[in-house]
Amino acid sequence: MSRAETTQTALDPALLFKVVFLAVVAVVVLVPLLATVLGGFKSLGELRVNPFGLPDHWEWQNYADILLSARYWQLLRNSLIISTLAVTLTLIVASMAAFTFAHVRFYGSSMLLSYLTLGLLFPAATAVLPLFIRVRDLGLLDTYLGVALPQVAFSLAMSVLLLRRFFKDIPYELLEAALVDGCSYIKFFRYVTLPLSRPILATVGTITFVNSWNAYLLPLVMLNTDALYPWPLGIMVYQGEYSSEWNLILTFITLTILPTIIFFLLAQKHIVAGLTSGAVKG
Amino acid sequence: MARRIASSPTIGVAETSFSPLVVRGPSWDGRFTVLVLFLPPALLLFTLFVVLPIGEAGWYSAFNWNGFGRPTNWIGFDNYRFVFQTRAFWLALRNNGMIIVVSLAIQLPLALSLALMLAERFRGAVALRMLFFMPYILAEIATGLIFSFVYDGDYGLVASIWRTFGAEPPHLLASTDTAMLAVLIVIVWKYFGFHMMLFIAALQSLDKSLIEAARIDGATRSQTLRHVIIPLLYPTIRLSVFFAIIGSLQLFDLVMPLTRGGPADSSNTLVSFLYNNGISRMRVGYGSAIGVILFVICVTFAFTYKRWFMRDE
Lengths: 282, 313
What we know:
B: 16 helices
């Protein structure tokens, strides 16, 4: 485990094996991604003979065309609206519920919490057909909200658990002192709990955002109008239209995953902590 | 089970010191307001969009219904009978089984060995961790499309490798023999990084003194690994197995851009089978029956697993 061992001479067979192993995995992960980005810079003819290497002739047109198309921006805008709705609603609804579970003792509290946490076990696919009918009956079919509301509902269990755990760690003396000074529970929630809980709010927000941003099945079922499609749906439509013009499709893929990659590089620690802690603590 | 998850490890300051407040009038009012304002939105949303739909899936599964009007054509358990008589259902079930086997036999050992290598500090370790985690945050749809390019018989990377050896490139995704295999490879590619990160997080929070003690007592590197580190990781391994299996059972998004479950249903999962046969044709009853079967499998698995393997977590 120590530093000395890992910096031994390069002839150590264990070390050599390790380096080779890591390199192979890195190549396997990286090559499909790089080929995708580079593929967008090639003509179709060149892609066919040279899918791996750098393009002989850099074709900027593919990227420029898509970046200048209304279609691309509309997809991202739709995704952003849906994800923002889902994150905002989840944070509000889940933090209020978590606050109640953490700080208010009432009859049936643990029963209700168990009820909510059942959501961790339920496969979303089971609910999809009845959800479609419910959303249709509510008149929310083909709206952003019709996608976001079920997403919020399915993310509640995990979110409430994570938030409640964090809220409970806020020293009780703080609440007691505030109450004695005439602060209400609601004010305490607004001015003490929430500001103190930024890290966990960021974690929950990240999990919800990534899930919503990448979601496919729910928007597929709830949306019928192309103009409302989030990017995973839009990219499938695009692929259907340009079925074998792979250079265009690769360009489109690159540009649609670009926001994810940038977001990831900017906030990698949060994202890794968020996605794994969500798993572990759930 | 759920109650245990929720309340076990955080029993802290707050739990015991509540009682004095119960007698105080004003604070009870405050808490009542919180109760009435703060709890209903979550309960309502959860009930309306999670619990009721799942209950309704059970109800609808007893009807032959296309989703319009009200369900009236009661057919009892016939939908289930139809599902069980469909060969594609058993294929889908088999494929889910294969995904689980590959996840456990290949993905988890790979993730664990990478974690053991990357939990140590050396130049580039963090960069490699991030690189390996990257596939996990990519959308399944994007991943699937990238790999349908990789596998493409005319333009793809695999085809190019084949051609350098002078062989006729295969269309991996278009053959019933290879489609599922191709999907399985993508699954490992996409998800190993997540499990690796779980293991790295666990390794970094291990009690280092135990490992040092073993080394001082003369244990070799591999003995320490086998008898100290791995046993200390058991809770994380059990958790990782749990996520691998639950995730495998619900796999859908990745399959759609790759094969849509085809050719000839050879690469369907339970959920893509549900989509192709229930949702896309609006056969609400039949689709709900598949959904209920999936539900029963998931919930039975989760409860059994928690009872047998995760009793103390």
